[in-house]
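Task: complex structure prediction.
Instruction: return C-alpha cells for all chains below.
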Amino acid sequence: MRLLPKDKKALLKAALGQIPADLAIVNAKVFNVFTGEILPAIVYVYDGFIAHVEYDDVDHVEDAKQIYDAQGQYLVPGLIDAHVHIESSMLTPVNFAKVVLPKGTTTVITDPHEIGNVFGARGIRYMHDCGMDVHMRQLIDVPSCVPSVPGLENAGADLDYSIIEELAQLPNVIGLAEVMDYLAVINGDERMMKILEVFEKNGLYIQGHAPFLSGRNLSAYLCGGPRTCHETRDTQEAINKYRAGMHIDMRDSSICRNVKEIFAGLKDFRYFDTLSICTDDRESDDLMSVGGINDVVRAAIKNGMDPRDAIKSATINTAREIHLENLGAIAPGYVADMITLPSLEDMKPSAVFTNGELVAQDDKLIVEIANKEFAIEQENSVNFKELTLEDFKIKAEGESCMVNVMAYDGKELSTTHLSVEELKVKDGYIDISDDPDLKYILVINRHGLDNKALRIVRDFGTTCGAVASTISHDAHNLTVVFDKLEDALIVVNQLKAVGGGMAASKDGKLLHCLPLPIGGLLSQKTAEELNDDVVKMKTALCSVGLDYMVNPLMRIVTAALPVVPDVKMSDLGLVDVNKKVIIPTFAE
Amino acid sequence: MRLLPKDKKALLKAALGQIPADLAIVNAKVFNVFTGEILPAIVYVYDGFIAHVEYDDVDHVEDAKQIYDAQGQYLVPGLIDAHVHIESSMLTPVNFAKVVLPKGTTTVITDPHEIGNVFGARGIRYMHDCGMDVHMRQLIDVPSCVPSVPGLENAGADLDYSIIEELAQLPNVIGLAEVMDYLAVINGDERMMKILEVFEKNGLYIQGHAPFLSGRNLSAYLCGGPRTCHETRDTQEAINKYRAGMHIDMRDSSICRNVKEIFAGLKDFRYFDTLSICTDDRESDDLMSVGGINDVVRAAIKNGMDPRDAIKSATINTAREIHLENLGAIAPGYVADMITLPSLEDMKPSAVFTNGELVAQDDKLIVEIANKEFAIEQENSVNFKELTLEDFKIKAEGESCMVNVMAYDGKELSTTHLSVEELKVKDGYIDISDDPDLKYILVINRHGLDNKALRIVRDFGTTCGAVASTISHDAHNLTVVFDKLEDALIVVNQLKAVGGGMAASKDGKLLHCLPLPIGGLLSQKTAEELNDDVVKMKTALCSVGLDYMVNPLMRIVTAALPVVPDVKMSDLGLVDVNKKVIIPTFAE
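Output:
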C-alpha cells in the first residue's frame, strides 16, 4: 500500500524544482534508514510529501514557502508505534494525539479492541472517525477476537466474520488486530480461517499475539496467517520467534517492559529488518511524562541497541511490517513525517512534523486539534438492572461448605490457582469475615444482559472497602471486589450513575470515582486534566490496601480476564482458563 | 501478497506434527535470512510449504514421506531473479525453466516486453501461460512501455492503459515492468499517470528503470511511482540512488556487468535491505555454463560482499521488493523453495527444491517439464510485402550529395553520433563502394505495416556481407546491415521464410541462419540444442567482420534501438534520440 498525494503532478513539479516547496528544512543531520548514514542535507516538502532531499548542495537553499532551521540537530523519520490500544490511555483519539505528538509519535497502529468489546462495530467506527484529521496517522487494525473467549463471558458485541470484512473497508484500516486466539488459528477453526482469509486475500496486514508460543505450535501459528508478535517476554522466546521469521514488536508498556529481555536475545544477530517497537498499553500520565514510542526507543538504546537500529525499528521496519511502502523514511515520495532531535540517545524531540507541517515544538503541541462530537460519547454504556443487597451475598446451607475460590499466586502476580476451601456459613450465607485475605468478587454484565456472577477471591490485595471498574478486560463488564456489602453498593451505583469508570469506597463512603463516560473506558478530558483524577484514584486504591502495587489501577482491571491462567472471573462465573469451562461455586 | 496453500488446515496439521510431512531435509546447515545465522536444522515440508524448522532436536527425525540427507551442506532459500527478459535467452518459458532450475533460480520476475512488442497482449498471455507449471515461479511484470518510443517507431502493438489494466489481473502478474519512459513519469504524462495509478491503487509492484538519473530528476521519478532500478552502472550513481531510497537490483547480464561498480559504492553502508540481484538479459549458453542469478551472487561475493548478504539480496530482499510476504526464507509458512550448496562462495547448487519437490541435482534437471503447445508458436510474425532490389538502394541526384549518416562512436560502443557526409552518386543512387566503413542499414516493419527506412551507417563493424535480425530492440522490426544488395536479399528472404531469427550472408551465399520462429524472438529448441546454432551464428558474424566483439550477436540487435543516443534507426527513419524527431536522409 502507498499513501498517495492529492495532486501528484504538482508534487512532481515541486520535486523538479519547477514550483516552490512548501517547506525546506535546512541545517539538519538527516538519518538515512536505507544506508544507515547520518548526513547534512536539506529536505524539501510539498503537499505533505518529501519532494527532494539535497545531500550535495547543502549551502544553497532553493525557493520554499517556509524555511525551518534545524540548527544542526538530527532529523529522523516520525516514530511509528507498531501496536497500541488507545483506550489504555483513557483518552479519546483526539486527546491521545495531543499527548503523543509532542513526544514524536506520528503514526500509531491501533487496535480498538476494548471499545469493540463494549460497542462492537459502532465503537470501532467511533475510534476510526475520531482519529481522523488529528495531525497524526491513527491506523486501525480490526479486532479479531471480540469476544476474547466466546462462550465463557458475555461482551457487549460479537464481531463475526461478516462485520470484520465490512470494517476492513474503512479508509484507515490496514489490517487485522492481534490474533489472540492462537488455538483457533493452529486448530484451523472455521470462523478464524474465514477471518484470516479476508485479510490474506486482500494483502492486508495480520497482526499476531502469541505469548510463550514455541516449537511446532509456533510454526503452526505462523503457517496459519499471523506473522508478527508483540507479546514476547523472554530472551529465549525472542530468539525462537525471530529465527522462525516472526516479526517481533518489542514492547515496553506501562506495566510490561520487555525490551531488555528481548534485545538480550537478538543483539548478536546480523539483521534487524524484522524488529519493531511498540507501547501496547500506556497510561496518560506515562505518555505525558516519559513519553510513548520515543521512550521505548530510548530503552532499546539503553539496553545496547545502536541508536540507528533502534530508530529504524521504530520507523521504516514498522512501515514495512504493516505493508506501507512510503512511510518511515526521509526520502523522495515518502510521507513528510519527521522529528528533530538534539540527541539520539535522549529521544526528546525538539520539533515534530506530520504531513510536512510543524505540529509540536519543545514538548508543546503548536497546532489546534479540533474536538469532534459523536453521539456515542453521550451514551451510558453501563446497563444493568438495579441491584439489591441480596445480589452481594452467596447463599449456602449447613454450618460450612466447600467453595471453589480464585486464589492469586502472589500479591504482585496476576496469575491464580483454584483453591478449594471450607468456609463458614452464617444465617444461610457464606461468611468470610474471619479471614482478611478473602473478598467477594462480583462481575455484573453491563451490556444489557441480566446476568452476574459472585464468587470468593483470596489474596486479591485489598484490605478493606470496595473497588469497582468498568474497565475490566476484555469483556469490560462491571467488576467489583469487596468485603462489606454497603461499600460495594456505593461503588456499583456510582459507576452506573456516571456511565462507567473506576471507584473505591471504604467505611460506607465513596473515596474517589474516576468517571470514564465514553463506553465506560474513556474520559473526554485531556491528559493534563485527567492526570489529577488518576492520581486521586490511585491514592484511593492505595488506601484500601493496594499500596504495594506499582500501579494499583491494574489489579481490578484484570480480575475478570479469562485468558490469564489458571482461573478468572467472568459474568458467567469462575472460569477454568485452561480447560475452558465454568467452575461451580461449591466444590464436591 | 501471500502465496496460499491449497489446504491450510492440512498444512497446520503437518506443522503440528499431527500428520507426516511430505519431506524432511536432514543434516543441513540452514541459512536464516532473519538472523543471519547458519545453523544445523531439520526442515519439514508439506504441500509445497515449509511446515516446521527444527533447530533444537536435530538428531531426531520425525515421520515424513521422504527424507533428504543434505550431507552437512548449506541449505539456503531458492534464488530469485529480480528482473529478467526470458526472451533474451531465445528460449521458451518451458525451456528457460529447464536451464535455470539446475543453477538454483527458483523464481524470476520477468518482463515479457520483447514479445509484447511483437504480439501485444497475446504475446504476454503466451509467456504467462507457457510459464505456468514449470516447476519454478515465473512471475510477470506487465510491460509499461510498448512501444518504447511512441511516434518514432512502429512496433507490433500499442499497449494502452486499458489493456495493461486487464493484463494486471492475470494470476501470475505481480506488477508493472521497468518504467523506461522516465520523462513521461517526471513530467506527469497523462497516459503514464493512468498506468501507474492502476498499480499504486492495487498495491502492486512498480519496477523502475532509470539509468544515470540523479538529483531532482531522480527525486521526481521516485515521487512518480517507480521505486526500484536495475539500470545502475556507476559507483556514484549507486550511492545516490540508494540514499534516495531506491531499491537497487544489481545486474550482471551477459553484456552489462554492474555488480562490481555498484557494490563498490554501497559496501560501507550499514543496511542492505533494499538491495537485490538480477540478470536482466542472459543468453542460453551463459545460463548453461556459468548460470543465472547464482552467478551474479558469486560475482557479488567475489567483489567483497558477505555471502550471507549476497544470498539475502537474491532471496528475501527481492521477495519484499515485489511485495511477496512468504517467499525467500526457510521458515514456517514460507514457500518451500530451497537449494543445497557445498560452498556459499562457489554457488553451485547440489540440489534444488521448488514447492518442496526435488527438481534438480548436481546440475541436472530430474523432473519432466512438459512442453505445451500454443497456436501463437505456429504463427509467422514476419509480415511484409515482397521486396525488390530497388528497396535496397537510395535514390539521389547530381554527382554527390550531403547525407545524414548514423556513425558509431567506436567499434565496441553502442552509442552513435550524427555525421553529415558528402557521398558519391552513381547512376542515380548513393554509392558507398569506395568507403569500407560505410554500410546500408535497412529497417523493415515486419508487423504488417508497409513501411521501411534505408539509411547509411558508419563504423557498424562488418567488413563485408549482410547481417539481419528480427530481434531488433525494442520494436523488433527486421533490421539488416549490408553493402551488397544481393547479400541483403538473401538474409531478408531467409528470415521471412523461417519466421524470423538472425542470418548472415557473404559473397551471395547464406553463411548461417538461426531460426527463431516464435515471434521472431524465440526458438523451440532446448538450451543444449540451441547452443550449437548460436555458436554457428556467432562464427558467421565473425566471418563478416564482427570478430572483435565480445558477443557479435549484440551489434545488429541494438542498431534500431532509438533510446540509445545520439541517433538510431527505426522503421520510420533515422531518429534523433535526444530531440525525438526523425532526421531526413539528406542534409541541407
